[in-house]
Protein: RNA-binding protein
Amino acid sequence: MNEFTPEGWKMETPENRAAFQSASSLADACRDRQILEGRAVICDSSHNLVVDCGCMRGLIPREEGAIGMNDGSVRDIAVISRVNRPVCFLVTGFQKNEDGKTIALLSRRAAQELCMKEYVSTLVPGDIVNARITHLETFGAFADIGCGIVSLLPIDMISVSRIDHPRERFSVGMDITAVIKAIDNGRISLTHKELLGTWEENAALFSPGETVAGIIRSVESYGAFVELTPNLAGLAEIKEGISPGQQASVYIKSIIPSKMKVKLIIVDTFQYDYRPCAPDYFYHEKHMDRFVYSPESSEKLVETVFTSS
Structure:
């Protein structure tokens, strides 16, 4: 039985490597409709992908490069950009090339259609899935949820603490976990912040009297919002010369669950270019129906309810 994972996850698995050992093992994978992964080494002038299949080369014809290539809903860049990256595929047959060598005929489209039928179509809001970041835009991150099928994670769904650009949280190729937020006409949107913990779970990492690291996210007339974790920010007293994006060391004056407030004093700030780290998750189940961010004692209810439309 196939396990549907983001492209790149199967490359070094024993099952995938075993299939590349010989023409016979590739033929077995063809018969069993086993989804394999290989590295695309060339995209020729006709936009066919040549794939390293270990014992032989494989060919993904342009029209087999992805769902939507035939009707034009997917552009050729979707194929061109796979060069030197893993691609998933089904082996559909074998043929001799001009030199008389046997090559494997492959279809990434068929692998994606199988993934859509047996996996993606079964997903409902609240399901938690593995994903791999494929590219970043100002409005959100795109993530592969299986066999190169990409979904959007909007920027305001990435974390409770607001950011200016998804690159502050993710980098291309990063593996994350996400929640199915909504499904509209087959299009899946994701959310992420519900996995990063409640206000109380994050606040429990800190204590009044500590001086800790933070990131200044915004500066207002009444104070500066400083991110302590992706799902927790506190309000600090204004200090001259501070600006959004700066790293900060902050003193924790108080933590007030009923008002969901963390009061801070900025000790020092500095500029620092950093690469985002893999997220730390508080929730590790396969599905959630409801996420309540706010403490029970809070005057305000902040929640996400996952419902199928």
Residues 108-118 form the longest helix (11 residues). The chain is about 10% helix and 40% strand. The chain has three domains: 14-118, 123-195, 199-270.
